User: Fold this.
Amino acid sequence: MPRGLDHIVHAVRDLDAAAAIYRGLGFTVGARNRHPWGTHNYIVQWPGCFIELVTLAEPDRLGDDGFSKLFGAFNGDFIARGDGLSMLLLESRDARADEATLRAAGYAASGVMRFEREGKRPDGSTVKVAFSLAFAEDRHAPDVHFAICQQHYPENFWNPALQKHDNGVTGVAAVVMVADAPAEHRDFLLAFTGAPMARDDGEGFTIDLPRGARDDDAGLFRGPVPQGPTGLCGGRATGSHALRRGWPCIRHTGCVGRGSGF
Assistant:
């Protein structure tokens, strides 16, 4: 069964400044959160999917565990090259089964890893949230990380009050990946998404998912790509003002047009 979009990671050097930019664009931004391995984040959410603004705020807390290596250190290295969208995560209803499927296909980059943290509601009260992740590897896109994510307390994470945005954006309609050779990524993306097929559309292809399409295109965004041939380049927002006031404005903050990130 195809996996829908869960979230996109936007890695930044100055987390508070990035959050201010999102607020200035009319997005509702949640509270600042901390991970045990030293990354901090802010969440911008819609029903069923979100953007995770993240920085490596406490590098001294990095360890030898999988989250430190595959999330913390990876995003720290990514930010050293410049801000951008660094990771794509798809939803999972059974992380262990999905990890086994990815491993059988030869794309698993980790076993299943679980972590928990406290989250904050808009009223300041705390709740428990927990996630199980399994990372996947596209060997033709080493500067981008992919993972599936299972939420164990979704009722504590999703919050309708945080899903209302002044700019009218109601969700993420698609994620766009720019590559010099889109065909090199087809087999991985089909295995990662669990989709049965990809639709060819000119220079690239589209994979339809239950929530959010995945576009792989040879040049949908033609900004400078100085750091490599492949990157997850951006997204298409949905909502009454999305085309005028939503996602396209973010292109000017440096989150697209780089070769090793969204």
Summary: Residues 71 and 243 are 31 Å apart (CA to CA). The first helix runs from residue 15 to 24. The two ends are 25 Å apart (CA to CA). Residues 5-162 form a domain with the 2,3-Dihydroxybiphenyl 1,2-Dioxygenase; domain 1 fold (CATH 3.10.180.10).
